[in-house]
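Structure first, sequence second, as always.
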């Protein structure tokens, strides 16, 4: 494709992937099939877009950069397969792309400066999604996939794993991008969970518990959750008030959240 070179724009957090080995591993993880609802966020210069489109019959791309959207619309090999939506993915209603009886596959090389709020936005659409694959800052993937007891375990861990099973796919060095970022990257695979009603908790309450817990993560539960529950109440939930937040499991946080929701409902009535 003979098009003028596009200079990466710092305000959009653009770092374009060019390593063919990494690209192929990502495409294999996505496993695009004909007839699927495939959505790419931030296609950029089309490094992942092209091989995915080769394996399927249609692909929707969401691109904020007007110049890159126009560039893709003129792509001689892709234009007929692409639906290009030039908008901000953080404000986009992904439910508008849903089809009866089908779930979406969403993927992309996300701008690292907006990755966490964008993930939280996407989590709202989990019932409509089969899986997601994203290139992110390595540190973010480590936090998303962390196990209890690790230093990386925190609010992002709990909120991610409440919605999805999170699995690391591949680590990627700065040299795989142009321009090269100053951090290492990694790809994460997210599989939305179908939680039974007994495990569901209002998201704003779970988020409140996480904010209280990890705002002072070196303190014990007795101290950092003191605004929400007494030591005796924590013990009634089979929790040790002397533990630190990162020692709890995601299920422990869900249990606290469900208890707190019940408490708030009782006060309201």
């Amino acid at each position: 494709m003979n098009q003028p070179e596009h200079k990466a724009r710092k305000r959009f957090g653009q770092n374009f992937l060019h390593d063919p080995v990494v690209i192929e591993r990502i495409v294999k993880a996505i496993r695009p099939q004909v007839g699927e609802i495939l959505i790419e966020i931030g296609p950029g210069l089309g490094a992942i877009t092209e091989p995915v489109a080769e394996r399927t019959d249609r692909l929707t791309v969401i691109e904020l950069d007007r110049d890159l959207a126009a560039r893709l619309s003129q792509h001689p090999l892709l234009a007929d397969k692409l639906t290009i939506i030039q908008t901000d993915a953080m404000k986009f209603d992904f439910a508008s792309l849903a089809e009866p009886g089908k779930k979406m596959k969403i993927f992309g090389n996300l701008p690292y400066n907006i990755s966490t709020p964008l993930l939280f936005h996407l989590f709202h659409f989990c019932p409509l999604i089969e899986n997601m694959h994203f290139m992110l800052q390595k540190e973010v993937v480590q936090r998303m996939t962390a196990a209890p007891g690790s230093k990386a375990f925190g609010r992002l861990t709990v909120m991610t794993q409440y919605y999805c099973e999170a699995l690391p796919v591949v680590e990627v060095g700065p040299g795989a991008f142009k321009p090269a970022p100053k951090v290492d990257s990694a790809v994460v695979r997210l599989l939305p969970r179908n939680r039974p009603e007994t495990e569901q908790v209002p998201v704003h309450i779970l988020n409140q518990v996480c904010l209280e817990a990890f705002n002072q993560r070196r303190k014990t539960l007795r101290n950092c959750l003191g605004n929400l529950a007494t030591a005796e109440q924590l013990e009634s939930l089979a929790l040790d008030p002397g533990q630190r937040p990162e020692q709890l499991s995601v299920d422990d946080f869900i249990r606290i959240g469900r208890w707190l929701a019940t408490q708030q409902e009782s006060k309201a009535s």
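Margin note: The beta strands are 16-17, 37-41, 59-62, 82-85, 104-109, 129-137, 164-172, 177-178, 185-192.
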